[in-house]
Amino acid sequence: MAPCNLETYPKGPKLQTWLGYEALSVEAQSQRITEAEKSDFCRNFKACLDQQVAPEAGLLVDLMDELVAMDLPMMALILLDSYPDLAIDPSSFRRYHVEATASLLCGEDSRAERALLLARDLLPEEPAPYTNLVQLYANQGAQETALEWFRAGAQICPNHFPLWEVYASMLPEGADAPFDLVLAAAREFSSWVGYSLAAELDPHRNSQTLALYLDPFYKQGEREEAFLLEYTGALGAAGDFDRVLKVVQLELAQNRGNYSWQLLWHSLQASYALGHRAEFELKSKVFLTEYEASIPAHIEGELRAMSQDEEHWGETGQKV
Question: How far apart are CA 300 and CA 78, in angstroms?
Fold first, then answer.
């Protein structure tokens, strides 16, 4: 059994159970922790490991994941090293990914590099190892190696936002260099995410720039939800609310169950901007009914304010 002063420290539910304690209350989970309390937890956690029942391999990774989420990556590595037999799992991508994340946070670059390469070999189509390898080598000043891993990642997963963000962060500053390089890479890998980033960097950008960059991808049949959210957002920023309505209406008619609340929210915003009150009210009812469990409270509040904005509806001739 772990020392009793570990019991009330906020932690993940699996770690709480593994240490032998009842579930924490919501109040206990949300308490603020001082650096001194964190240090005490780490000291006591290390001391209790010899007394704990060894977790099975899957649980070990879950416990590591929770420790990283608790901002205790070093404890995750110590836990992993405490059970070397369980740690040897040549087929677990997640095990190496969590180890790499903890190692990066602890500044253990060599260990992180080894874990990332193993994770990449296990799941070469997964973008996270490429992204982290680019960041790792860029931080070390190994620009050419970082670029090689960016290109390898962009070829396999061309629309992974974090990969492009890391790539942009390592580019030289000054003049139009970042924009030119990102735009060239976006063209090379036919990446709408790359074009989206290029639009942010475009020194001549205006309200229509992003929509113009993304429009060809829509016409070519790109329908991934992340793209549709970016595209309809860009159309809204450009003031093309009629096209927002058309795009969303078409997609929801064909694939309604495949999309989250955000796409219909863009349609609601467009109806509001155009002053289509009857349409807005009808969509609001559908929105609140179909997505009740997932809509954030602040979005519900914004929707309510829009519905009650009589000054806006009056100006558009839609007062009822």
Answer: 44
- Alpha carbon distances (Å) from 101 to 2, 31, 38, 85, 165: 26, 25, 20, 21, 18
- CATH number of the CATH domain containing 78: 1.25.40
pLDDT digit string, tens, across residues 98-140: 999 999 999 999 999 999 999 999 999 999 999 999 999 999 9
Question: How far is it, in rounded angstroms, from Cα 78 to Cα 175?
Answer: 46
Q: Is residue 308 part of a domain?
A: no
Domain assignment present for 148:
no
pTM of the full predicted structure?
Answer: 0.85
End-to-end CA distance of the chain: 67
Task: Give how many domains the chain has, as a whole number.
Answer: 1
Q: Which domain holds residue 56?
A: 1-123
Distances in Å between the Cα of 76 and the Cα atoms of 45, 53, 60, 132, 256 are 11, 16, 9, 18, 41
Helix, strand, coil abundance in the chain, percent, nearest 5: 70, 0, 30
Please check whether residue 76 lies inside any domain of the structure: yes
CA triple 201-204-209, angle to 5 deg:
75
Neighbouring C-alpha atoms within 13 Å toward the C-beta of 299: 17
Provide the angle, in degrees to the nearest 10, between the axes of the packed helices 73-82 and 35-48: 0
Per-residue pLDDT tens digits for 40-52:
999 999 999 988 9
- Say if CB 211 and CB 246 are below 8 A apart: no
Helices (H) and strands (E) in the chain, counts: 20, 0
**Domain-located, residue 300:** no
